[in-house]
């Protein structure tokens, strides 16, 4: 992706309308063997948002990854208008390839209202400018990085990411399952709040499952581990800009039965909680996989 602007990322979320409540999306040429989960979430959200009133932003979405997506072919999104109430709008979106569902999502949109207010406090974290960017981390840890990890980290991206306590990621030992990451989209994104929310949905899938592996001294690049997202939930608490620094505080409270639960909170630099995330994933040791 373009390192100086989010143009290609925005183009990824600009779905083609192919019929009433029907849309089509594509994957970037730089995709790996499977569609990135955050892409499916964000594109489904864009499709659902296009069928809702503009004065009702999304406040929550819940999705299931059913099959691995093929990035070489388009993804078709069909939106079902479940309900249009006085305050809330509900949409269901089904993403398919070759006639098979690869991702399904239900999202709720709400008319803006006033109400009681409280929020969690942002954890202490160093300023993002004081932390190494990804390219500096690659140089710092090159001798210890597997080839797959270096390739992933060096990939040209519209994302600027700064890892808090990177030694915990690159030299994992048994420790509490948590990590924090500053991130922002490079360049300036349009002012449309719906675009920033879709971009947040795209980025909310990143690094979550790796949080569950750190406590066991593993990473997603370990060839002995099979990792895949099973579901994804996002609650949007208020407007944000993804072209400004956001802190993603991630934890894994549980793992078992070849699954792991992860959750995260996303804060603005000023400490405002703007989103909460939860995801369960497949975390299977390959020597225990069924043939």
UniProtKB/TrEMBL annotation:
Alphabetical keyword list: Hydrolase, Lipid metabolism
- Any Gene Ontology biological process: fatty acid catabolic process
**What EC number(s) does the entry state?**
3.1.2.20
Quote the CDD domains the UniProt record gives: Thioesterase_II_repeat1 (cd03444), Thioesterase_II_repeat2 (cd03445)
GO molecular function ontology, one term from the record: fatty acyl-CoA hydrolase activity
Q: Name the catalysed reactions.
A: a fatty acyl-CoA + H2O = a fatty acid + CoA + H(+)
Cross-referenced Pfam families: 4HBT_3 (PF13622), Acyl_CoA_thio (PF02551)
Q: Where are the transmembrane segments?
A: none
Acyl-CoA thioesterase 2 C-terminal domain location is 175-282
User: What InterPro entries does its record include?
Assistant: Acyl-CoA_hotdog, Acyl_CoA_thio, HotDog_dom_sf, TesB_ACOT8-like_N, TesB_C
List residues of the Acyl-CoA thioesterase-like N-terminal HotDog domain. Answer: 29-110
Q: How does it assemble?
A: Homotetramer.
Q: Which family does it belong to?
A: Belongs to the C/M/P thioester hydrolase family.
Designated name of the protein:
Acyl-CoA thioesterase 2
Can you name the source organism? Methylocystis hirsuta
